[in-house]
Each structure stands twice: as structure tokens, then as C-alpha cells.
Write a structure and sequence with these properties.
Elements: E1 2-6, H1 10-22, E2 26-30, H2 33-42, E3 47-51, H3 59-68, E4 75-79, H4 84-92, E5 97-100, H5 105-119, H6 121-124, E6 128-131, E7 134-137, E8 142-145, E9 148-150, H7 154-165, E10 171-172, H8 173-181, H9 191-203, E11 212-215, E12 219-222
Parallel strand pairs: 1-2, 1-3, 3-4, 4-5
Antiparallel strand pairs: 6-7, 7-8, 8-9, 10-12, 11-12
Helix pairs in contact: 2-3, 7-8, 7-9
Length: 225
Amino acid sequence: MRILIIEDDKKIAAFIAKGLKQAGCTIDTAPDGEAGLELALAETYDAAILDVMLPRRDGLSVVEEMRKEKVNTPVIILSAKRSVDDRIKGLQAGGDDYLTKPFSFSELLARVQALVRRSSPAAESATLLQVADISMDLVKHRVERAGKPIELHNREWTLLELFMRHPDRMMSKTMILENVWDYDFDPQTNVVDVLVCRLRNKIDKEYPIKLLHTVRGMGYVLKNA
């Protein structure tokens, strides 16, 4: 995913950017509303995250101008304002979601992913996923490689589905933890490595072409060989 961050607080912007990069995203940042709007109008993004209180041009003005110019990039508005009226103003301005500060990165990432899924309904509604010679039937709950059935436990299934929805994209341990377990673990835990090892044994061990690869120090990738 390619994400635009419009945030004038350097610490918050760095915090968000670091987490999204670890989740495999490509990031552009802007320190004020004018610079952010320029990027939003000139480039294509899967989602944008912007603060309300920005120098040069406020966040609501930015998203209003984006919608006026027919830019449909999903937008998450960040704000310290918690009232219902403030949330309504943000959504009426053209925002797709509204998150109050302070927030957890896990929640922000989940909201970004949800927005991107909703903006790509065809991809998410697919009932048959195919990567190389692996097929996953989401209706019949069946996985095959080269026509041979593969039995998977629940978390192995969830992990493989995550990889198959994002072929050739590096998945960090943080992203895997938040998608497969749905909450944070100690980042030093080896639970991800163990699960990936189990999945690799089932989908790669008996085949000459290996599809699930380790990106040293970064995460894992399922290659569409």
C-alpha cells in the first residue's frame, strides 16, 4: 500500500511512518496542508492520514479540496477533538474515518487496511485466490497446490490468505501479528516464525519451486513464481 501522511507534529509523523513501513507500506509525508494537498492531487495513494490542525491549510480544507477535485483516496482524519460534532464535521468534509488522539498504532493500521479493502471491493469479494500453482477456495475452504489438497489449521489458513491477497509484497512480523492474532504480541516473540515454518512445510516442502521466502531482518513474502 502507498500511504500519504499529512502531519505537522514530527514525532507523530515519524511514529506513524515507522509502523506503516514495518507493515510493508510505501510512505510519503507532508508537514503542512498545502504540501499535503499538492501531493494528494498529483500522486495516487491507497489511503491518506491527515491531522485537522495543520499550518498553511487545515486538514478539513485539504480533504474538501481533494473531493472537489474528484480525488477519491480514502482519508483517515486525526484529531484531538473528541466531540460528536467534530467527528460529524470531519466526515461531512469528505473524510472516510475519524480517529482521536492519542491512538494506538494497531488501531490506526486496522482502520487503514479496512478503508483500503472497502475501496477495492472486487479484490476483497473474490472467492478464489490463486498464486502460482496454489489455489485457495474461500467458499469451500479448500487449499490445493498443483491440484493436491493441503490441510491447514485455522491460523495457517489465515496467514496463507494474507499472503495470497498480497503476492510479491513483503509482510512484516508486525503486520502478520496484527492480521493473524488481531492484537499485539511482544515483538521479540518467535510465534510468527513458528507459524511461517509450519505453513512453509505444508506448501513448499514437497515441491521443487519454493514460494514462501524470508526477507532477512524484515519479514516474509509469497512469490508469484
